[in-house]
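Can't paste images in this forum, so I'm doing it all in text. The chain is below; anyone willing to post the predicted structure tokens underneath?
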Amino acid sequence: MLVFSIIASALAPGLALLTYFYLKDRYDQEPLHMVIKVFLLGVLVVFPVMILQRGMILWLGDHPVVQSLLVSAGIEEFLKWFVMYHIIFNHTEFDEPYDGILYAAAISLGFATVENLLYAWYSQAAFGPMFLRALLPVSGHAMFGVIMGYYIGHARFSGESRKRFYLALSFIVPWIWHGLYDLILNLLTHTWIWFIVPLMVLLWYGGMGKISRANNRSPFRFINREEEINT
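Text version of the structure:
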């Protein structure tokens, strides 16, 4: 029973957030099997991340700034971006800007769910710490995914002259936010909560705006409106 409770508490936040982002797709919902596949890709990303992070620590050391910006944020966001670009970016199902947000959030939440499961399993965490992790690391990864996906959506539906610019932003911007998040945790060991909470509020506020703007740029928005008028 304890094992079941640990697994359930670790899986619930990521699956709940994934469901939320799936339902936020207003005009042309993605095939559920595609979203699940991308979520599982996020799960698989954990293993190369762990290997690369171990190698980076042995090479560069574990200084908090290096750990935050390169070992944690840099490697994690780059590999998630790598999967998005090489597997999702040119996929036929990626047919509206919001799809970038959904798929990037799915990858991030797959990654965060495994991370959460490992933490719960090895620490035998109680409800309080697991609830805090749902509000912070899992939610944080979701927001980094929203930011990444927002700019990838821009890149997918922009002209060639702007495509590289938005692709660069799709990695750089979530990397900066993720690095800032980790810097707060690693450097402000006693007062981190006073900085993390405002940061998360800011990320969620900005993320909700990006979701709304991405939906508003959907080509299916006008098709659906015409169908409603005709009926």
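Residues 127-156 form the longest helix (30 residues). Residues 57 and 67 are 8 Å apart (CA to CA).
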